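Ticket #4471: complex job returned nothing on first submit. Input attached below:
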Amino acid sequence: MNFDYTDEQNMLRDSIAKWAQGQYDFDKRREALKSDDAWKKNWATFAELGLLAAPLPEDVGGLGGGPLDVSVVMEEFGKALVVEPYVPTVVIGGGAINYAGSSAQKEEHLAAIAGGERVIAFAQAEPKSRWTLHDVSTTAKKDGAGYVLNGQKAVVIGGPQADTLLVSARTAGGQRDAKGVSLFLVSKSAKGVTTRDYPTIDGTRASEVYFENVSVGADALVGAADNALPLIDRIVDEANTAYCHEAVGCLRMMTDLTREYAKTRKQFGKAIAEFQVLQHRMVDMFMATEESVSIALLATLKLGDSDHERAKAVSAAKVSIGRAGRFVGQAAVQTHGGMGVTEEMRVGHYFKRATMLDSTFGNVDTHLKRYAALTAKAAA
Amino acid sequence: MNLEFSPEEIAFRNEVRAFIDANYPKHLKGVGLREDLSKEDFLAWHKILGKKGWSAPAWPKEYGGTGWTATQRYIWLEENARAETIPPLPFGVSMVGPVIYTFGTPEQKERYLPGILKGDVWWAQGYSEPGAGSDLASLKTKAVREGDYYIVNGQKTWTTLGQYADWGFFLVRTDPNAKAQEGISFLLIDMKSPGVTVRPIKLLDGGYEVNDVFLEDVKVPVDQRIYEENKGWTCAKFLLAHERAGIAGVARSKRNVEKLKSIAKTEIGDDGAPLIEDDEFQRKLAQLEIDLSALEMTELRVLARESAGKGPGPESSLLKIKGTEIQQRLTELTLEAVGNYAQPYTRELGGNEFAVGPDYSRGAAPIYFNWRKASIYGGSNEIQRNIIAKMVLGL
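Support reply: We reran it on our side without changes. The output follows.
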């Protein structure tokens, strides 16, 4: 057993922190959020720093790292509140193509992802699907050698920046059947694809995506037809793990910012940090953060395990970190008093991000049920 | 002791229900209390109630109150919550009004109370300062007497909806040498006075609900001071206790529980059935309703004691803590209920035509973030616990 990061991983962490301090501080980020194009410069930097290549195999232009490298990136992204669509592109898009793509798809997309020339968004959720991955109404009907797609996808994170969509669509079965779901790579500029773009409350960008008789070739299919759910489960588990590390970055910042604020804010003639009730709350914030660090790491280290072990560990992390995000976020704002509710204080932005991460790919309740079902299955 | 309404109370309920149905502005039906309403919309119902003589039911009858019993006032709040009316704002009716009729001179009562009742004058609160939040008595805004005027200098903050205010009530320091609580006076200031600047503060939800108020050499006639010089803290404490009493928001929370249920009937849960049938969700909803019932009974007990002649006491801190905790849990559950449609933020894109997701999902996240204020304002919940510890438990 060994809990050390490699020198390369430590360097990766330092390089992101340095970039964030110089190019992505609170004010620069806020300015960038108002612009449609600011992300492009950041994206180019991510390519230069090797972040986009980090987890991809070396033979396709990647750096041959793994989930631990992603975890390092994501925690730093959490601390800096990075809103660029790293997870949809690298973890989900890159992951799906790497695991199941044809050699032509790998050639077309993976080096481009690593180089920063390809941005992918995951068009998975639907207006009524909530977080159920196999609840898919969007259809892909066989048409000659290819398929024709129809349907609507909801809250597609990174949709506005993406040039390519990874789309889950039903090729067989009923709306909630596990069988019959397939994955397709569709160019956003394909005829019949339209989007409505909007910001999310935590500063990312998303789209509603509409498919109207969108024709794709057989070569758009990623992996086997009708049987994409295991692959979707896997890439969503990996995405959730990455997001858990991002949340950990937010938690660390909220805990630190709150401690610093409490030490300097004076009421009743002394720093509010001297009040025991606030000390204990900050201790609870610290403990929740440490537990989150642990369980996120556990999930990362289990990603290569069996499907069952992987799913359990990821749901465990989503439950713990979802709860921690709510508690730490609320406590951080409360300890900041009125200032905590203002847009000008950083702490609230971490709270917003942590909250929205909980509502991404299943919240606490979703994953508590998933964990319970998985353990009950093992016990039966 | 019993919980049943008497036939007279039922008749009263029918009367107010019919009045609301017939008189509440049509264009504001179902809109609810939102911070982005126009000034006219905020005041519309208030003005109608002012004409009817119902804008300040809790006031003594001699000053324009309705003379209703505590039960009638309870029914009134219930019916308004049921109809989702935009209630008269608290700053005049619940805050400065009671201070004026309790501590003001006859001339002051005559000058200020009618405007509050009619909804003609919008009041704002100038209490907190950047350095004086929970420790309100450490406030530094100073008022120096010059003849018949005070010259006021300082900064106030968290002034809710102060951007619309005509008048404000301010706590200012008139004796810099006295102990913290003893050198404070309570001044009414015309917000149009030279030297008053209001600057909106952007909040986490993207809205502008609170303001900084800067006071620079503002001339305030001495006859706009309520009660004696340096005795303003008495007014402040009185007002805070009144503010706390209304803060439980039981009737509105009950209404919001119903709204949440209707969302949960529409939303599909993780297992494909309506969310309302989901075990986890049901348990949380049940717990919330149980806690709300306990709070409602507690509020009714406090009200009963009040109508027996005792004003709101330190027990009202309990109502503030529990009431705001329940309001916040409601916003949490609503956020959970709407799933990933909590994420889109279309407010700055130009309103409903750009909206995505179901209508009820739109406010869920902004309200959740905004409502963190509830455990902070009106004396933070930590301060309320201190009050109970000290004043109720004698610790």
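The first strand of chain B starts at residue 123 and ends at 126. Closing as resolved unless it happens again.
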